[in-house]
Every structure is written in structure tokens, then in C-alpha cells.
Amino acid sequence: MFEILNIISKWAIPFLLLVIPLYGLIKKVPVYETFVEGAEEGFTTAIKIIPFLVGMMVAISVFRASGAMEVLSNILEPVTSKMGAPAEILPLAIMRPLSGSGVLGLATELMRIYGPDSFIGRLASVMQGTTDTTFFVLTVYFGSVGIKKYRYSIVTGLVADISGFIASLYICNLLFR
User: Fold this and answer.
1) What contacts 64, CB < 8 A, 6 or more positions away?
2) Which residue pairs from 3-7 have beta carbons closer than 8 angstroms and sit at least 24 positions apart in sequence?
3) pLDDT tens-digit profile of 43-55?
4) Can you tell me the distance from the alpha carbon of 113 to that of 107, in angstroms, rounded to the nearest whole number?
């Protein structure tokens, strides 16, 4: 089974790089011109999101440098410890809705200290896969396309993040403890 998956993953991108242009040629779509047009739109979008990225990075830096993350971790620690979450993982859980790259740095540090095969290392890895960067997505992507009313998206994203956190705790406690 794994051999089949390896073969598929090895050939998936070359297959798509061949099939998509061929399909466009068959449908008489100007493939190269369409590609260049899409690349130009992508560049324009990238330029538009720079202010949102800068604002988000500043807010995350202020959140961490002010000590607010430590205060929030200390407030949540009694509840999360009863759920089976080690205190070391709380900064990662708090930062995940804010920044993917920031959390990647935290997860890397946890794995360097405790090891990737430790409970904390495995929990950090599972949390990376079960939660999303909710505020980053809302700020950057919604901001770049001009969506201004995203109140329900925040609630939905945070509920999904909390659900992912609880699910990762449950699964890791079930499998790795």
C-alpha cells in the first residue's frame, strides 16, 4: 500500500504539469497567456496583503513581548492540566490561531528540549495539524479581498481551533501516554 502511495506522490506533480496544459490546448485556451495573467494577479494580491502582514506581525510581537502570553498561559494552566495538557504546550496552543511561523518556532523549540518522540513533541506535532492560523487567515486573506464583516468567521475559526486542541489532547493521551 505504501509503495503505491509513494509512486502516486512521486508522479502527481509531473502528471498535473503535463495534463493541465494539454487540457488547455485541447480546449483552445491560450495556456501561457492565461498563466502570465494569473501570475500578475497573484503578484498584485501579494502586494496588497503586505500591510496586513506587517500589522499582524507587530500585533503578535507586542502580544509576546508584553508578557500577555505568559499571563494567559498561567490563567489557563489549571484547566488545561486537568485535561491532560502539559503547561509547556500552552504557549503553542495560544499562538496557533495567530501565527503559523511563530508556532513552528515554538514547536521546534519544544522538540529540541523534549525530543520529537516525547509526549510534548508529539502533541505539538498533532496540534500543528489539527488547528489553523485563524486570525492570520482573517487578517491577511479577508483583508486583502475587502471583507469587513467577519465576526462569525472569528467565532467559527476559534471554535474549530479549540476543537482541534481538545481532539489533539484526546488522541495524544490515548495513543502516547
Assistant:
1) 95, 102
2) none
3) 887 887 788 778 8
4) 10
Give DSSP secondary structure letters for 28-40. T--HHHHHHHHHH
The DSSP secondary-structure symbol of 131 reads -
Q: Say if residue 68's pLDDT is above 80.
A: yes
Cα–Cα nearest to 91, from 104, 106, 101, 79:
106
Q: Which runs of consecutive H residues, i.e. helices, occur in 27-150?
A: 31-65, 68-82, 90-95, 100-114, 119-130, 134-136, 143-145
pTM for this prediction: 0.68
- What is the Cβ-side half-sphere exposure of residue 113, based on CA atoms within 13 angstroms? 11
pLDDT at residue 149 tops 80: yes
DSSP category for residue 123: H
Query: Per this entry, what is the length of the chain?
Result: 177
Whether the predicted pLDDT of 172 surpasses 80: yes
16 vs 13, 79, 123, CA distance in Å? 5, 48, 34
User: What is the rounded distance in angstroms from the CA atom of residue 100 to the CA atom of residue 161?
Assistant: 13
The backbone torsions φ and ψ at residue 77, rounded to the nearest 5 degrees and listed phi first, read -55, -45
- Under DSSP, is residue 67 helix (H, G, I), strand (E, B) or coil? coil
